[in-house]
Amino acid sequence: MDLAALYADTQARILELVCSLPALDLATVVLGTPRWSVSQLIAHLAGGCTDLVEGVSEGAGSEAWTSRQVVLRRDVPFGDVVAEWQSRTPSLLAMLSTPGQVDAIAFDICTHEHDLRGTFGLSGPSDASAIAGVTTRVTGRLGHLIENASLPPLRLVHDTGDWVCGAGTVGVTGAASTMEWFRALFGRRSAAQILTYGWDGDPSPYFDLLNLFGPLPTADVAEAGAPVPG
Fold first, then answer.
1. What is the DSSP string of 77-99?
2. CA pair distance 131, 44, nearest whole angstrom
3. Cα(62)–Cα(58) distance, rounded to whole angstroms?
4. pLDDT for 121-168, tens place per residue?
5. How are strands ordered across the β-sheet holding 154-157?
6. Which whole number is the average pLDDT over 194-212?
């Protein structure tokens, strides 16, 4: 994947969305990241970009690292935060051109774009090929986690095929759209929502692994397009 292009294209769509919002809407809580408003989410994105460009990477991705980015920009006008992000982006894109250096930030911005879209009633992927590419990349990590947990492989059926995560004979198969797997693997679906997918076998032993960044959310993520458990 061209992660620099993915980042640049996603940033452009995010800015087109948020810069057209009325000022009051910037205080809207983002459903996929319920501890942040729209303006705070943009502060995180700007801060993450600046931190990586400046080499502030200790604890990157942790709650302390991201929270600091938001706090530092708490009293900064929204337009100035946007300008900071835009000014730092060319240096970050140069870093993204080296595979393995800061790849995760491209996945992060893609995830947060869909947090914003879902909050404002926009369902589905903004770029289907990008979502498929990102999800394909992270299913490799899921496979390693499954093997380390000594679980049989998990087969994820999606729009155009499947991913088999792990080595050996498949133990459980789930079927959902590519978009749903993307949201689940990045921690935007509860266990109850994931159970609405089509399952052959019991998926519960895999729940501790499906969110690649920690536990599954306890509450359903009530964004546009998300499944509603019965």
1. -HHHHHHHHHHHHHHHHHHHTST
2. 21
3. 9
4. 999 999 999 999 999 999 999 999 999 999 999 999 999 999 999 999
5. 162-165, 154-157, 172-175, 198-200
6. 97
